[in-house]
Design goal:
disordered N terminus, 71% helix, 19 helices, elongated, single chain
Length: 337
Amino acid sequence: MVGQMITTNSMLHKLEMPIAGKLMHSLSSPTIFAAVTVSLILYSCANPVDAKHRNNSDDFSSAKNSWKLAVPINSVSPNGLPAGRLFLLLRKDKVDQVRTLLKETAKKKGDDAERAMWLGACLSSEERYEQAVQMFDQFKTWEEAPNLVIILAAKAYSEDQKFDKAIKLCSIVLAKWPMPEAYRVRAAAYILTNKNDLAVADYIALADSDAYAAKHHLMRAGNLLVKMGQYDKALALMDRATLARGGSQNVTIWLVRGDCYKAQKKWQKAVDAFTSSIELSKVRQVKASQFSLPVAFKERAYCYEKLGKHALAATDRRSLSQLSKSMESDLIGEPKD
């Protein structure tokens, strides 16, 4: 919500599961296939960075730059609305109090659009995006709005699949200062409008401004570059991601590397990359690592076949089958008589 600097975005989360698609083709059981897909979605939505640290990272970033977002507490808009107090309440996610303060403030001629802007911000913070868009459509002078409100509007338009409007609003914010959430929302909108090259640029900019989560932003950019067939550029970003905080122990970085080498038909390098992912997955007892194992085994088996190492490929396929059964038991439980 707003008090957490808007760290969630459901449209964005639908795009941020780089291993989900391949996992769906790696598991042998339809039941575990569905269960793991649900688990992946929940994991991605709750934790695109790290379970204990994602919100800490965003809180640190927002605290560091809070002066750029702040509206003086006693400030009053040209229409006579208590903008400073409204902003503070919205920032603290006290949307009911925002609505109460608006009702208590005497109406003036010409203040309807600004009131609609604040009400839209409340609705967006409650994830009532369709209703929020109806309010935001009444407001036109976005360059004069607080950045926090503009981002709430951009999220609402993005969720309502009005991506061009979301991109325009994020660009207004970014013209003022590099707000991480603006890059995130705009990158998602770029992807959904098939502007992957622009999304890559936004993720790289995010990595430059958010050192704590840089590896994740670079992986998103790298996955897009793989989709675009720009494998050397993707590999260069993975080299950079490895050097970022926590990157050397990240299994997905090695999966992206493996994808690049596989696409380039560099079979042994692909095998080495998938092997590194498997070894790290076995060491690291976190969900993302365990979910990557089926993908890595399946992809490495394919590369072994291309190298003519059929026995090793068969071993990986057996490991994949055993892993599938084990994950099914863990997620669903043992079958009852």
